[in-house]
Amino acid sequence: MDAIAISSLTLNIFLGLLILMYIFRIIMTWYPQIPLKQFPYSLIAIPTEPLLFVLRKLIPPIGGIDISPVIGVGIFSLLREMLLGQQGILTMMQ
Are 12 and 80 in contact, with CB atoms under 8 Å apart? Predict the structure, then answer.
């Protein structure tokens, strides 16, 4: 395996995990009583909060519904597709 293939695989796994964490974060918004600072939930809340904080500043909750995790999934899905998709930048370099 060359360096581009290894970096593509690593980036694919990393972006896939981020997308999965944001999907879990969407589910966690359905239950507002979840303590985000306690152990199992903090594994999802801590890595996702920096981007969500910025997104909430740009797009405040609409009618009490926080759509920032959905936008986070969209951002990382788009990034993954642009870099690693069938016509992605890293895919075309291989």
Answer: yes
Cα angle: 43, vertex 49, 52; to 5 degrees: 140
| Single pTM value for the model | 0.87
| Domain carrying residue 78 | 3-93
Q: For residues 67 and 29, give the distance between their C-alpha atoms in angstroms, rounded to a whole number.
A: 9
pLDDT value, residue 5: 85
The tokens of 45 are what? 């809340």
Question: Nearest Cα to 19, choosing from 78, 77, 66?
Answer: 77
pLDDT (average), residues 7-33 = 93
Taking the C-alpha atoms of residue 67 and residue 14, their distance in angstroms, rounded to an integer, is 22
In this prediction, residue 61 carries a pLDDT of 87
Token representation of residue 16 = 């896939």
Number of domains in the chain: 1
Return d(Cα 74, Cα 38) in angstroms, integer.
Answer: 27
Contact 66, 48 (CB under 8 A): no
